[in-house]
Amino acid sequence: MTLDDAALDRRFDAGWGTTDGDPFTVWTSRFVYFPWRYDGSQSVAWVSRNPDRSATKPIGGG
What is the pLDDT of residues 25-61, one digit of tens each? Predict the structure, then answer.
């Protein structure tokens, strides 16, 4: 994981019009997680870490 303890302890607001989360990448045994942003709202997206024959849906947009 690329976040330190201070970043993990910081309050996060995923509301519209603000993106106050830090950039990050988290690797688990099955997935890779990263920030996702659309129209000022921020959330978390993920993709498979290893080839598993599953397709990745488009990230972002409506």
Answer: 999 999 999 988 777 777 888 999 998 888 888 877 6
Residues ≥6 apart with Cβ < 8 Å to 44: 33, 34, 35, 36
- Rounded CA-CA distance 8/52 in Å is 30
Cα–Cα distance list, 35 to 27, 52, 53, 57 (Å): 13, 22, 23, 15
Which tokens in the block code for residue 25?
């990448």
Indicate if the pLDDT at residue 2 is higher than 70: yes
* E-strand stretches of 1-62: 26-27, 31-38, 41-48
